[in-house]
Structure formats: structure tokens, C-alpha cells
């Protein structure tokens, strides 16, 4: 009699485990299929789980010939949740004037000009300090004035940070 109960209990436990494994693997497969659909989706669709604010920091020094093209390419981006921080490292040309003109031309865009009096910082040190002081974005993109990002560059970067949960840096 006891042997029969042990046999039934073992069979019942085996059945429950088989069902749990089956349902668990199906749930995993559905999650993976959803990720693959998101990866292959159209870049302009609302495919993102979350839409973080992206802080784009543009570092300049005497870049009056290239800064306007760089900023206009950022304004054409398909990703709209963007703030632009332009760090001018003591330019002697009309770089600040061009940036101020673009700020008047695009009043609804979040553009901030951080003008430095001395060009004591080489590299992106001043850019990082400007982000710490003024930036609000969850993601940060560093550019120089000669850069002209594609209109899908920000969308693609955000897509990779959303889909691949372990990414901390994208170059």
C-alpha cells in the first residue's frame, strides 16, 4: 500500500516538473521572438521599451565652418528626445555667433551653449564637466564639430541600449 502511494507521488511530481519545463521554455521562446521582431522592426517605429533622454555634447574650438552642419544634422535626427550641449573652448572665430543663430532659429530644441574663456582643457574633459553640470540625459553621446551623424544614429544607439540590457558603452 505504501509502495503504491510512493509510486503515485513520484509520477505526479514528474508530471508537474515536465509541465513546468514545457511552459518555461515556451515563455523563453516567446520573449526571444519578441526581441528578434524588435531588432528587425522599421527604425522609425515606436519599438523602444523606453525612450531615454539623450544628451549630445558637441565640443568645438574655432569650428565656424563645420558647427552649423553638425548641429543641423542632429536636428534632422529621427529620435526626438535629445538635448544638445555645445562646449565652446575659447573660439576666436564666429563659432558662438553661429550657435546663437541656430538657437534662435530652433527655439523648441533644447540647445545649451557653454562658452569657456580659456582653452585650458584638451580633449573631452570640459565636455564631461559640462554634462555633469547641465546634462539631464540617461545616455550621452560625445561629438566634435566636424561630426555629421546620420539621422538614424541616435535611434540605433537607443535601440541597442534597450534591446541588449548589458551594454554600458557603445562606440
In brief:
By secondary structure, the protein is an alpha/beta fold. The protein is 47% helix and 16% strand.
Mean model confidence by pLDDT: 80
Give helix and strand order, one letter per element, not per position.
HEHEHEHEH
DSSP helical segment count: 5
Distance between the termini: 69 Å
Molecular shape: rod-shaped
Biggest sheet details: 4 strands, parallel
**Class inferred from helices and paired strands:** alpha/beta
Report the count of strand segments: 4
Q: Give Rg in angstroms.
A: 26 Å
Read across the widest sheet, the strand sequence of neighbours is 3-2-1-4
Assess the beta-strand content as a share of residues.
15-25%
Structure description:
The chain has 171 residues and is of the alpha/beta class. 47% of the residues lie in helices and 16% in strands. Strands 3-2-1-4 form a 4-stranded parallel sheet, sandwiched between helices. The longest helix is centred in the N-terminal third of the chain and has 39 residues, at 2-40.
What is the fold's blueprint, element by element?
Layout: H1 2-40, E1 54-60, H2 67-75, E2 82-89, H3 95-105, E3 110-116, H4 125-134, E4 139-144, H5 153-163
Parallel strand pairs: 1-2, 1-4, 2-3
What descriptors fit this protein?
171 residues; alpha/beta; 5 helices; 47% helix
Amino acid at each position: 500500500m505504501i509502495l503504491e502511494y510512493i509510486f503515485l507521488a513520484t509520477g505526479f511530481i514528474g508530471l508537474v516538473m515536465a509541465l513546468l519545463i514545457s511552459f518555461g521554455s515556451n515563455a523563453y521562446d516567446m520573449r526571444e521572438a519578441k526581441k528578434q521582431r524588435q531588432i528587425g522592426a522599421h527604425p522609425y517605429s515606436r519599438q523602444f521599451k523606453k525612450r531615454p533622454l539623450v544628451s549630445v555634447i558637441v565640443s568645438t574650438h574655432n569650428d565656424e565652418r563645420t558647427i552649423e552642419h553638425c548641429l543641423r544634422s542632429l536636428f534632422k535626427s529621427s529620435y526626438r528626445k535629445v538635448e544638445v550641449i555645445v562646449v565652446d573652448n575659447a573660439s576666436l572665430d564666429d563659432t558662438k555667433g553661429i550657435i546663437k543663430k541656430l538657437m534662435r532659429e530652433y527655439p523648441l530644441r533644447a540647445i545649451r551653449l557653454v562658452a569657456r574663456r580659456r582653452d585650458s582643457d584638451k580633449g573631452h574633459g570640459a565636455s564631461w564637466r559640462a554634462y555633469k553640470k547641465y546634462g539631464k540625459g540617461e545616455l550621452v553621446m560625445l561629438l566634435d564639430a566636424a561630426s555629421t551623424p546620420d539621422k538614424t544614429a541616435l535611434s540605433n544607439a537607443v535601440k541597442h541600449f534597450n534591446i541588449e540590457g548589458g551594454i554600458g558603452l557603445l562606440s
